[in-house]
Amino acid sequence: MDRKLIVPLVFGVFGIAILLVLGVWQLQRLAWKEDILSGIAARMEAAPIPLPRQPTEAADEYVLVEVAGRLGGQELHVITSLKPFGPGFRVVTPIETAEGRRLLVDRGFIPEADKSPARAPFSAKVQGRLLWPDETDSFTPSPDTARNIWFARDVEAMAEVLQTEPILIVTEAVSASPGAPVPMPAGVNIPNNHRQYAITWFSMAVVWLAMTGYWVFRIRRETT
Questions:
Q1: Which of the four, 1, 69, 111, 114, has the lowest number of CB atoms within 10 Å?
Q2: Contact by Cβ (8 Å): 167, 124
Q3: Residue 11 has pLDDT above 70, yes or no
Q4: Exposed, middle or buried by CB within 10 Å (0-12, 13-18, 19+), for 150?
C-alpha cells in the first residue's frame, strides 16, 4: 500500500467508526425514551387509584390518584400565566387526609388580581396526577417570601415550608371547591429527538466516507 494513503485511510476509518457508534447510541437512546413514553402513556390512560404509601418518580409520575381530606390553608403562589387570563399564579396548598398525611396540592391558576385574600380551607376529594416538576436550576431566583411569590414548583422546599410530605398532586378535579382556581392539569412534555440525532450521525458518516474516498482518489491520481 502507498504510504501516502495510510493517513487518509486511518483518519477516514476512525472518523466513520466514531460517527457510526454515535448513531447506534442514539438508536439505543430512542428505544429507552420510547419505553419511558409508553409507560407514561399507560399511566395517563389508567383509572384513578388511591395514593400509594410511598410513591416514587420512576414508578408513579403522572399516575392519577384520588385523595380526600382538608384542603387549603396556607398557600404558596408560583408565578405563571394562562390564556386567556394573562399573568397570575399557581396555588400550591396542603391537604391533610383522615390518616394524618399532609401532601402538596397544585390547585391550579388564579389571576394576579385574585392573589389575596387566601382561600379558606374546606373538606374535599381531590383527583389529580402525581408530578415531580423539574423546574429549578442554578439560575432560578429564590422565592420572594415577603410577597409570597415563587418562581418554580420546588417540591422539597415547598414541603418544608408547608410541613408536608414532598409529594405533589396536580389537580384535575375537586369535589367541592368554592372560589376554585382554574385547574392546570399536568401535561407530558418530554422531548424525543433521538431518531433525528441518529439520522444526523449516520448522514455525517456517509459524508465522511465520501470525503475520505475523494481524498484517497486525489492522492492516487497525483501519484500515478
A1: 1
A2: no
A3: yes
A4: buried
